[in-house]
Here is the input.
Amino acid sequence: AADWTENLRGAAPVFDGQSTPGASSGHHPVSLERELIGRLKTFAGQHNSTLFMCLLTGLKALLLARTGRSDIMVATAMANRAQPDTDRIVGPFENTVIVRTTITSELSFAQALAEVRQSVLDAHARQELPFNLLADHLEREGIDPASVLQVYFTLQNPLRRPLDLPDLATESIGNIAREGQPVLPIDQTWLSLMLKERPTGITGSCNYKRELLDGPMVGAWMKDLVALLVAAVAQPNLPLGRLLARKAA
Here is the structure.
Protein backbone atom coordinates (compact mmCIF):
# COMPACT_ATOMS: atom_id res chain seq x y z
CA ALA A 1 0.00 0.00 0.00
CA ALA A 2 2.88 2.37 0.77
CA ASP A 3 4.34 1.89 -2.73
CA TRP A 4 0.97 2.53 -4.37
CA THR A 5 0.43 5.60 -2.19
CA GLU A 6 3.77 6.90 -3.41
CA ASN A 7 2.57 6.37 -6.98
CA LEU A 8 -0.48 8.59 -6.31
CA ARG A 9 1.27 11.28 -4.28
CA GLY A 10 1.30 14.71 -5.90
CA ALA A 11 -1.57 13.99 -8.28
CA ALA A 12 -4.27 16.64 -8.67
CA PRO A 13 -7.97 15.77 -9.04
CA VAL A 14 -9.28 15.73 -12.60
CA PHE A 15 -12.04 18.21 -11.69
CA ASP A 16 -11.97 21.18 -9.31
CA GLY A 17 -14.49 21.47 -6.51
CA GLN A 18 -16.30 19.12 -4.14
CA SER A 19 -19.32 16.90 -4.49
CA THR A 20 -22.11 16.64 -1.94
CA PRO A 21 -22.78 13.06 -0.80
CA GLY A 22 -26.08 11.80 -2.17
CA ALA A 23 -26.22 14.34 -5.00
CA SER A 24 -28.56 13.34 -7.82
CA SER A 25 -27.12 11.69 -10.91
CA GLY A 26 -27.85 12.04 -14.58
CA HIS A 27 -26.99 9.67 -17.39
CA HIS A 28 -26.38 9.87 -21.11
CA PRO A 29 -26.47 6.82 -23.44
CA VAL A 30 -23.28 5.93 -25.28
CA SER A 31 -22.99 3.85 -28.45
CA LEU A 32 -20.03 2.83 -30.62
CA GLU A 33 -20.68 1.00 -33.88
CA ARG A 34 -19.32 -2.46 -34.59
CA GLU A 35 -17.20 -1.22 -37.51
CA LEU A 36 -15.38 1.27 -35.25
CA ILE A 37 -14.86 -1.38 -32.58
CA GLY A 38 -13.34 -3.69 -35.18
CA ARG A 39 -10.91 -0.97 -36.27
CA LEU A 40 -10.00 -0.21 -32.65
CA LYS A 41 -9.33 -3.89 -31.94
CA THR A 42 -7.10 -4.14 -35.01
CA PHE A 43 -5.24 -0.99 -33.99
CA ALA A 44 -4.86 -2.26 -30.42
CA GLY A 45 -3.45 -5.57 -31.66
CA GLN A 46 -0.90 -3.75 -33.78
CA HIS A 47 0.29 -1.92 -30.67
CA ASN A 48 0.30 -4.91 -28.30
CA SER A 49 -2.66 -3.41 -26.45
CA THR A 50 -6.34 -4.13 -25.84
CA LEU A 51 -9.67 -2.56 -26.69
CA PHE A 52 -9.97 -1.46 -23.06
CA MET A 53 -6.64 0.38 -23.31
CA CYS A 54 -7.70 2.11 -26.55
CA LEU A 55 -11.00 3.29 -25.10
CA LEU A 56 -9.30 4.46 -21.90
CA THR A 57 -6.75 6.39 -23.98
CA GLY A 58 -9.61 8.10 -25.78
CA LEU A 59 -11.27 9.01 -22.47
CA LYS A 60 -8.04 10.37 -21.01
CA ALA A 61 -7.34 12.38 -24.17
CA LEU A 62 -10.83 13.85 -23.95
CA LEU A 63 -10.28 14.79 -20.29
CA LEU A 64 -6.95 16.36 -21.26
CA ALA A 65 -8.75 18.61 -23.74
CA ARG A 66 -11.78 19.45 -21.63
CA THR A 67 -10.15 19.96 -18.21
CA GLY A 68 -6.61 21.02 -19.10
CA ARG A 69 -5.20 18.27 -16.85
CA SER A 70 -2.30 16.25 -18.24
CA ASP A 71 -1.87 14.05 -15.15
CA ILE A 72 -5.10 12.05 -15.18
CA MET A 73 -6.34 9.41 -12.74
CA VAL A 74 -9.19 7.09 -13.72
CA ALA A 75 -10.60 4.40 -11.43
CA THR A 76 -11.62 1.05 -12.82
CA ALA A 77 -12.60 -2.41 -11.60
CA MET A 78 -10.32 -5.41 -12.06
CA ALA A 79 -11.25 -9.06 -11.61
CA ASN A 80 -8.59 -9.64 -8.93
CA ARG A 81 -8.33 -13.31 -9.87
CA ALA A 82 -4.64 -13.50 -10.67
CA GLN A 83 -4.08 -16.40 -8.26
CA PRO A 84 -4.83 -19.95 -9.58
CA ASP A 85 -6.39 -20.82 -6.21
CA THR A 86 -9.37 -18.59 -7.01
CA ASP A 87 -10.32 -20.45 -10.21
CA ARG A 88 -12.87 -22.74 -8.58
CA ILE A 89 -14.29 -20.24 -6.10
CA VAL A 90 -17.69 -18.74 -6.92
CA GLY A 91 -18.15 -15.10 -5.99
CA PRO A 92 -16.79 -11.62 -6.71
CA PHE A 93 -13.15 -10.79 -6.09
CA GLU A 94 -13.43 -7.49 -7.95
CA ASN A 95 -11.31 -4.61 -6.68
CA THR A 96 -11.07 -0.93 -7.55
CA VAL A 97 -7.71 0.27 -8.86
CA ILE A 98 -6.43 3.65 -10.03
CA VAL A 99 -4.87 4.09 -13.48
CA ARG A 100 -2.70 7.21 -13.43
CA THR A 101 -1.23 8.45 -16.73
CA THR A 102 0.49 11.63 -17.84
CA ILE A 103 -0.24 12.60 -21.45
CA THR A 104 0.16 15.87 -23.34
CA SER A 105 -1.34 17.33 -26.49
CA GLU A 106 2.01 16.88 -28.27
CA LEU A 107 1.76 13.09 -28.05
CA SER A 108 0.17 11.15 -30.88
CA PHE A 109 -2.68 8.78 -30.07
CA ALA A 110 -0.28 5.86 -30.61
CA GLN A 111 2.19 7.37 -28.12
CA ALA A 112 -0.58 8.12 -25.63
CA LEU A 113 -1.78 4.52 -25.98
CA ALA A 114 1.71 3.29 -25.07
CA GLU A 115 1.63 5.42 -21.90
CA VAL A 116 -1.85 4.21 -20.96
CA ARG A 117 -0.88 0.61 -21.68
CA GLN A 118 1.98 0.80 -19.19
CA SER A 119 -0.16 2.45 -16.52
CA VAL A 120 -2.84 -0.24 -16.95
CA LEU A 121 -0.21 -2.97 -16.58
CA ASP A 122 1.08 -1.25 -13.43
CA ALA A 123 -2.47 -1.22 -12.06
CA HIS A 124 -2.90 -4.90 -12.92
CA ALA A 125 0.21 -5.69 -10.87
CA ARG A 126 -1.47 -4.09 -7.83
CA GLN A 127 -5.03 -5.35 -8.33
CA GLU A 128 -4.91 -7.50 -5.18
CA LEU A 129 -4.41 -4.49 -2.90
CA PRO A 130 -7.82 -3.74 -1.30
CA PHE A 131 -8.88 -0.21 -2.13
CA ASN A 132 -9.99 0.49 1.45
CA LEU A 133 -6.42 -0.23 2.58
CA LEU A 134 -5.09 2.17 -0.04
CA ALA A 135 -7.67 4.77 1.07
CA ASP A 136 -6.44 4.49 4.67
CA HIS A 137 -2.85 5.14 3.55
CA LEU A 138 -3.95 8.09 1.40
CA GLU A 139 -5.80 9.67 4.32
CA ARG A 140 -2.70 9.33 6.52
CA GLU A 141 -0.78 11.15 3.79
CA GLY A 142 -3.36 13.95 3.80
CA ILE A 143 -4.86 12.89 0.45
CA ASP A 144 -8.65 12.67 0.13
CA PRO A 145 -9.40 9.20 -1.35
CA ALA A 146 -12.41 10.69 -3.16
CA SER A 147 -10.01 12.82 -5.23
CA VAL A 148 -8.72 9.71 -7.01
CA LEU A 149 -12.24 8.40 -7.71
CA GLN A 150 -13.65 11.34 -9.63
CA VAL A 151 -13.65 9.47 -12.95
CA TYR A 152 -14.57 5.80 -13.33
CA PHE A 153 -14.40 3.61 -16.43
CA THR A 154 -15.39 0.01 -17.04
CA LEU A 155 -15.76 -2.20 -20.11
CA GLN A 156 -17.71 -5.43 -19.81
CA ASN A 157 -16.64 -8.08 -22.27
CA PRO A 158 -19.27 -10.42 -23.73
CA LEU A 159 -19.43 -14.00 -22.48
CA ARG A 160 -17.42 -16.25 -24.76
CA ARG A 161 -20.07 -18.95 -24.41
CA PRO A 162 -23.36 -19.39 -22.54
CA LEU A 163 -22.91 -20.07 -18.83
CA ASP A 164 -24.15 -23.62 -18.24
CA LEU A 165 -23.87 -24.90 -14.67
CA PRO A 166 -25.29 -28.25 -13.54
CA ASP A 167 -28.41 -27.96 -11.35
CA LEU A 168 -28.17 -24.17 -11.34
CA ALA A 169 -30.22 -21.63 -13.28
CA THR A 170 -28.38 -18.49 -14.35
CA GLU A 171 -29.58 -15.26 -15.90
CA SER A 172 -27.72 -12.30 -17.38
CA ILE A 173 -28.32 -8.93 -15.74
CA GLY A 174 -28.74 -7.44 -19.22
CA ASN A 175 -27.97 -3.75 -19.59
CA ILE A 176 -25.36 -2.26 -17.29
CA ALA A 177 -27.74 0.63 -16.59
CA ARG A 178 -31.13 -0.06 -15.02
CA GLU A 179 -33.73 2.70 -14.90
CA GLY A 180 -31.04 5.27 -15.52
CA GLN A 181 -28.81 4.16 -12.65
CA PRO A 182 -25.65 2.03 -12.79
CA VAL A 183 -25.99 -1.47 -11.40
CA LEU A 184 -23.11 -0.74 -9.02
CA PRO A 185 -23.46 2.96 -8.11
CA ILE A 186 -20.24 4.71 -7.14
CA ASP A 187 -21.21 7.67 -4.98
CA GLN A 188 -17.80 9.34 -4.99
CA THR A 189 -17.59 9.46 -8.78
CA TRP A 190 -18.26 12.64 -10.71
CA LEU A 191 -18.18 11.00 -14.12
CA SER A 192 -18.47 7.26 -14.81
CA LEU A 193 -18.34 5.71 -18.27
CA MET A 194 -19.71 2.17 -18.12
CA LEU A 195 -19.64 0.25 -21.39
CA LYS A 196 -20.55 -3.26 -22.50
CA GLU A 197 -19.39 -5.00 -25.67
CA ARG A 198 -22.10 -6.66 -27.76
CA PRO A 199 -22.19 -8.36 -31.17
CA THR A 200 -23.55 -5.12 -32.66
CA GLY A 201 -20.92 -2.88 -31.09
CA ILE A 202 -20.62 -1.20 -27.70
CA THR A 203 -23.42 0.35 -25.68
CA GLY A 204 -23.45 1.86 -22.25
CA SER A 205 -24.05 4.93 -20.16
CA CYS A 206 -22.12 7.96 -19.02
CA ASN A 207 -23.30 8.83 -15.52
CA TYR A 208 -22.54 12.17 -13.90
CA LYS A 209 -23.30 14.31 -10.84
CA ARG A 210 -25.89 16.93 -11.76
CA GLU A 211 -24.55 19.46 -9.26
CA LEU A 212 -21.19 19.46 -11.03
CA LEU A 213 -21.84 18.65 -14.69
CA ASP A 214 -24.82 19.27 -16.96
CA GLY A 215 -26.47 16.96 -19.45
CA PRO A 216 -25.82 18.91 -22.68
CA MET A 217 -22.12 19.21 -21.84
CA VAL A 218 -21.77 15.50 -21.06
CA GLY A 219 -23.67 14.65 -24.25
CA ALA A 220 -21.26 16.82 -26.25
CA TRP A 221 -18.30 15.14 -24.55
CA MET A 222 -19.55 11.70 -25.54
CA LYS A 223 -19.96 12.81 -29.17
CA ASP A 224 -16.43 14.20 -29.03
CA LEU A 225 -15.14 10.91 -27.63
CA VAL A 226 -16.58 8.93 -30.54
CA ALA A 227 -15.25 11.48 -33.05
CA LEU A 228 -11.82 11.33 -31.40
CA LEU A 229 -11.67 7.53 -31.64
CA VAL A 230 -12.71 7.62 -35.30
CA ALA A 231 -10.00 10.21 -36.07
CA ALA A 232 -7.39 8.40 -33.97
CA VAL A 233 -7.59 5.09 -35.83
CA ALA A 234 -7.51 6.97 -39.14
CA GLN A 235 -4.50 9.14 -38.19
CA PRO A 236 -2.88 7.56 -35.11
CA ASN A 237 0.36 9.53 -35.50
CA LEU A 238 -1.31 12.93 -35.50
CA PRO A 239 -0.71 14.92 -32.26
CA LEU A 240 -3.60 14.80 -29.82
CA GLY A 241 -3.75 18.59 -29.97
CA ARG A 242 -4.79 18.38 -33.61
CA LEU A 243 -7.16 15.47 -33.06
CA LEU A 244 -8.75 17.51 -30.29
CA ALA A 245 -9.01 20.73 -32.28
CA ARG A 246 -12.33 21.65 -30.71
CA LYS A 247 -12.02 23.91 -27.70
CA ALA A 248 -13.65 23.25 -24.38
CA ALA A 249 -16.97 25.00 -23.94
